[in-house]
Amino acid sequence: MTDAERPPAESSVHLHDPGPMRAMAHPMRLRIIGLLRMEGPATVGMLSAKTGESAGSVSYHMATLAKHGFVEEAPELARDRRERWWRAVHEMTSWNTVDVIDDPVRHAASDALRRTVLESYHRELLAALDAEAALEPEWIAPTDSSDGAAHLTLEEFQELSADLAAVRDKWWARRGEPAEGTRLVRWMTHVFPRNDV
């Protein structure tokens, strides 16, 4: 993705309303927005080929994403009037469950989106496992899937979350153009209190 194709570096959207949350809470829409954010602008045909969805289905999902401001057309990339390119408007989407916990409609939308995101993480991790056979051993060795637990105070729990956020922010700042010797590397972190202990 060139700088002209990339959304502004500070570009993020914080969701408050249930409509955009529900729009994003669909596996294919989440996948489309992820492709546009990681790989840059694309046409419906290109997204159809990458996702295995029909062009009609991708067009429908693009219209929904556009309606809620997640994607926009990129007419400057079109080679003719029939070709329609799309780009992600933001690099990141966030929302705070605490902000919606007391509103049943917004909480249900937030919950649906969180579940869709977690399911997409699961699919992506399994796909990465399947793809390992084609990787060089040195690219497999640093791969990590781990977990842990500790009895923490609320302040320590907050510190742990902040520490992990600092690590994510450090490496997020390194994103940019692919360079020789690099591969796209994904990370996912989850920090949560257990209620069954």
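(ticket continues) Second input and output from the same batch:
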Amino acid sequence: MTEDAIRIEGLQKTYKARKGQPPKEALKGVDLTIPRGSVFGLLGPNGAGKSTMINILAGLVLKTAGKVTIWGFDQDENPRQSRASIGVMPQELNLDPFFSPRGALEVQAGLYGVPKSERRSDEILKMIGLEDKAHAYARTLSGGMQRRLLLGKALVHHPNILVLDEPTAGVDIELRQMLWENIRKLNAQGMTIILTTHYLEEAEEMCDEIAIINQGELVARDTTSNLLGRLDAKAMVVHPAAPVTVLPQGAGISSELRGDGAVVLRYHGNATSAEQVLSAVHEAGISIRDVKTEEADLEDVFLSLTKSRS
């Protein structure tokens, strides 16, 4: 058995040309491995190819070329086993309005061939906080409740891998906290989680490793901490004791005056020390009332990597 939850080799997807338009290469030979038991972030701007990759993993879109192995099962040779190993919580709400939450889970379990004796619909409803809505029509549920039900449907067949496609887009804080609490529990039980999100602070907090896709290509894949380490850009924010008339200057230092009167000094830690930055502040005749330093976050890394390929 492989230690990879998912192995992708040379994955390509080209959509046929539409009238007056050339064929579109959504994925251009992507190689990617996702380790078992991890919380893995799949990030990229709109149109980067993330949704295409997820739909290929879920068996909803046919690849043009390449090899996909899910939980040790080749997608071409063992399509049923590979699909049974993965559950997908889609971004779009795709619920039958006339099914109750419990009915929707039962039908979904039946589609995956889960015997009645092995179904755990009531347990899932309790986990996602819908046990009191078990027999209500899905159309009467709020948007947040419907998103909870999508998570429940993704779990009915006991998948080893759970894919969350923009799970917290447009949801309230309470639902977001409930969702991440459940995800942490599932991951602690050994489930591999794959997350796509536009909320980069979520990926920074939740993910062990991150892959960044741009224009159908893999532009980065590393641990979250290593990705953050790629940018050693730092910022020192100085709150002066008196209004500033002269901005600090120095080699490798750029400075700007904020609207609140604070001075922001940007520099690279591998070339310029914090001591040098403070010396430039003192040489400018600035008396410091308060000071703090800031380091690059995942958004900085993301923008740097995607802009360089645009």
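Agent notes: The chain has a mean pLDDT of 89. The chain has two domains: 4-228, 232-307. Closing as not reproducible unless the customer responds.
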